[in-house]
Structure formats: structure tokens, C-alpha cells
Amino acid sequence: MRPDPRTGIATVCLSGTLEDKLTAAANAGFDGVELFENDLLAARPGPAEIRKRCADLGLSIDLYQPFRDFEAVPPDVLAANLRRAERKFDVMADLGVDTILVCSSVSPDAIDDDDLAAEQLHLLASRAAERGLRIAYEALAWGRYVNGYEHAWRIVRRAAHPSLGVCLDSFHILSKGDDPRAIRAIPGEKIFFLQLADAPTLPMDVLQWSRHHRLFPGQGDFDLTAFTGHVLAAGYSGPLSLEVFNDVFRQSDPQRAAVDAMRSLLALKDSLGLLDVPAAPAPTGYAFAEMVGESGLASLGFTRAGVHRSKPVELWTQGEARVLVNGSGEPGTIGAFGITVSDPAAAGLRAQSLLAPALSRTAGPGEAPLTAIAAPDGTQIFFCSGDDWITDFTPTGEAAPSAGLTGIDHVSLTQPFDNFDEATLFYRSVLGLEPGATTEFAAPHGLVRGRGVSGGIRLSLDSALVRRGEWAPAVREPQHIAFSCTDAVASAQALRSLGARVLEIPANYYDDLAARTGLPAERIRALRELSVLYDRDEHGEFLHFYTELAGARVFFEVVQRIGDYRGFGVVNAPVRMAAHHDARRCATAR
Fold this sequence. Notes:
- It is built from 16 helices and 25 strands.
- The protein is an alpha/beta fold.
């Protein structure tokens, strides 16, 4: 195993004052920070005081940034730039930082002349060296003449000064589609700094993409494991440091964002073989889902099969689907779910190593000692090795007619606005689930983003893209459990006969469905009569229907997967949301 690299984070990643940012970074376990100049200028303490505060917090200041528009300029501009640089060197001396980031120029004064750029950077590096400082030259993806890392390295090599090296930024390289393999040809001692950022694939101006949509590693679409592997293979020995510009992160709680950031680096280290933690647990299915308060499960064909020996919890079953109904907690919520894994203790150790808090449980005599952690949204996740936990329940001997439900297909959790990307990273890193494509759709009350994560179990994560005003539906972060079946039409008929409040879908949907799909009229008629929705892709078909809300936030879905359909029927989500809104309005009117 390679030596464990230090970790760093740019202060620009976090919200709040400089003190807020430094405290959050230290609390999350970072070794150092990149100090963004705007944060220094807005801070009340002077550079020497900030240096002391960082030392007290156990943080090093690894980089001061940015210094812009320096190289390849006429003599009068160069003279002004050097004066400016000397003042920055004074600040760096007080801060105790030895490396400054110099970005490739975007100035209209810049000249397309690599020899001149190298000459002037050599001069700057000479001035820096006199004071024990270094220059890390970075190619901005939108630089006027230098916008690629290989071009920046050619200039640095031509300048030939020991105090001049390159800064490699994953966003500037990967956003342009540049091949990072050539990084291996750069001597490790000339890579002065590494900045890491992920991002979603977006067809937009690269400057706006960079300034507003960067993400922490593991939250986007870049292959940062391969990228970082190339940098380490070149011999780089500095910190793995995050530089993420993101509008949501910069208005979020800095403590929570810093933990999310650290988790992303720990997961990246794990993918590189640099972290000594158990492997991701590879779940094989849901052991149970847990609801709080009244559930309405009887009308779905579930049997109240057991009562917990020491807690106010009931076990409801149908086929392989198991739902716990907890009498304590916030009513009308999905409070927890259990997943089956081969080694619960190892899964719990991995989760804690990736900063997921362990949950303490009080178990009565002879009760199963379940390992549990908390997800960022508070959902409790239990690791189960089999069915031993069922013996904690005293059988009731009750029986009920089945509606043909066979198991839990997926659980859907709506994430708070600020934490959608955090949830993706959590389930990806802690449970080893693979995220699918992010989808966005226009719902009746605003734009909604959704993303499935899967691997032995399926989870659907949703979030409103914009904060909703008072006019929006008063359903806070709706959640649902989706049950599998082998015949959605038959199950829909059975649920109706049991008195389930199946969500009614407008006839207009089925007129369009017939036009879009060319399904036989008989099949369309059966779907319409029972309010069963339909989707298909290149792998198979998907039939599903919903109940009305069972409480304040929770509802149920029944799904039938035909072939190898892998999605969640997202195309039907706006119709479902409108139908739920109408059902709530009708219920209020009654």
C-alpha cells in the first residue's frame, strides 16, 4: 500500500466566515486548507492571527490562491504584476504558506508567446525562491492561450526553475476531455499541487460549469480514481485537496458539508487502495423496511405476523416483504430499513470509517444484536446476516388474504434540497451501490431531480430542484416503499377488493399511452380500469401503481418488472404527483 496522502480542502468549498470554514474543516478531520484570497480579505483577523488559528486547529495552510493574469504580458504590465506578487509574498510569509497558485492568464494584455510566458514565470519563481516560496502554475480550462495541462507543463519545463511547478486540477483537465495519462510523464517533484473536483456531465460553457456545478469526488461523472492514480504514479507526494465551486455547498451548513467532503476523499482513497477498511458490503436484498405510526398495511394484504418482545414494534409480512411498524417516533415516516449482508460487523466498520455515525441499540435478553448506522437524512440502516432478528418477535398466529406482493423492490427517500449529492455519495461509498443517471422532470409544483442507486438493493433518491413557496403542497419530503409482484393487474384488483385506497390516474394518461406505445386496446383498457401505469425500455417493461398517502408523508407502490427493466418509471412521476395532489385536495374537501 502506498503512503497515505494528506487531505486538504479549499476554503471556497464551504459556507460561512473564514472561522466557520476553518473550524468545520478541522472538525471533519482535514489536515490542511487552501486559503482562498477572498476569504482572507473578508476576515477580521490578520494573516499572522489566521496562521496561529490554523495551527491551534491542527490545520496547515498548504496553498494560497489565486494569483491571476501574470504571464506573457508587456513590460509595463509585468512590472505591475511583480509589485502585486511581492505584496502577496508578504502575506504568505505572515500566513506561513510556501506555495501560491498562479492561474494561466485570461487577460486581454496576454500575448500568445510561450517563450515569453516561460521567461516571466522564471522571473516570478526567482523572486519567490528568494523568500523560500514556490509557484504552482495551473492551466485554466478557459485560459486565453494556455488552457491545457500539457501546455502548462511545456511552459514550466521551458522556464526551468526549481521553484516553479504545475498545479493539476481534475476539473480543468477532465471537463475538456483531455487524456490524463500523459500526467505520468511529468516528474512527481514538478507537480506542486493537486486539486480534485467531480462534476455532472453538462453541455454548457466550461467557465459557468466550473463556477457553479463542481461536486465532491464520487458525486459526479468524472473518473477520479483513474485520474488520481495517474498523478500518484507520477510520484506526486502532496495532499489530495478539494477545490469545489458549488452554489448549494456554499449556502449549506459548513460542518455537514465538510464531513461530506471528507467522506468523498476517504472513498477516493479506498478506491485507490490507500484506505485499510472492509470492502463494500454487497447487499443481497432488503431484510425489512420500517414505518412509524399507522400504516394501512392490512388493506395491502399484509399479515400482522409478530409483536416485538420488548419494543412497541409490529412485524407485518406478505411473501418475502417484511415491514416493521414502530409505535414511537415521527408518525407517517420511513424511519429505517434493514439490508441483508454477509458480515454486518464489517459493514458497520466500513460505514464508521466513512464517517457514518453508529447507532447504539438497547437489546433485551436473547434479542438479536443488530448493527445500525444513520444515513445523512437520519434514516436508520440495519445490517442483517439472515433472519435471526425475526425471533425478536412473538408470533401472533394471525392470517390475512394475500394481494400477490412478493418482496420489497425499492425504497424511495426524498432528500432535502441541499443534500441530494451528499446522499448519492453516502450510498455509493458506504453501501457500494452504483448510481444511475440523474433525471430531471417538471412536476406539477416545480422541477424535481431523481437518481436511482442499486446493487443488491434499489433506492430511489429525489429532491426538489428549487425551494418551494407557501403555495406548494404541504407534504414534506414524501417517501414510499415499492413492493414487487408477479402480476400488477391481478394485485391491483386484489388491493381494491381489500379496500386499499389505490391512487386514481386520469384517463388522459391512457389515451396518450395508447398513442405512444401501440399496446393492444385490451391491455390499455385493463391498465386504465385499475390505474396501473406503464413504462418500457430496451431491457423490458414496467407496470406499477400507487396508493394514496398513508399518513402525512408515506405512500406505497406496487411494481412488476418484466424482462430486465432497470428503471423506476420516472416518466410517470409527474402524473403520479398530480394525482396525489388531487387526492389530497379531495380528501380535504370531504
